[in-house]
Amino acid sequence: MEIERHEKCNVVVLSPKGNLVYDGAIKLECMLKVLCEDACAIILNFRDVKYISANALGSIAYYVGCFREKQKGFKLVQANKNIKKLMDITGLLRIVEVFEDE
Predict the structure, then answer these.
(1) What averages of pLDDT result for each successive group of 10 residues across the chain (102 residues)?
(2) I need a labelling partner for 65 at 20 to 30 A (CA). Which of 40, 51, 59, 75 fits?
(3) Rounded CA separation 93/102 (Å)
(4) Domains along the chain?
């Protein structure tokens, strides 16, 4: 699992490539932990993610709260319909905004 990182207008964009499971979920969690302290806002671009594990969903839910407490933005873009369905079932769609593009 590779997670590409770049900045766009003072926003950090993370673009995971592949399935967000096991080591990929841990890598994403570590990156979110650092960014919660350092970044102004974050966008997770799921264009190249086909599947996401429960651990990764839990990490996203936790760090959405962390970013909100610090009044920082946290958005998701280009999530496929299966990921959106999982996010809806778990209630994550109620706490994080999902957009079609960056």
Answers:
(1) 91 96 94 91 96 95 95 96 95 93 80
(2) 51
(3) 17
(4) 2-99 (3.30.750.24)
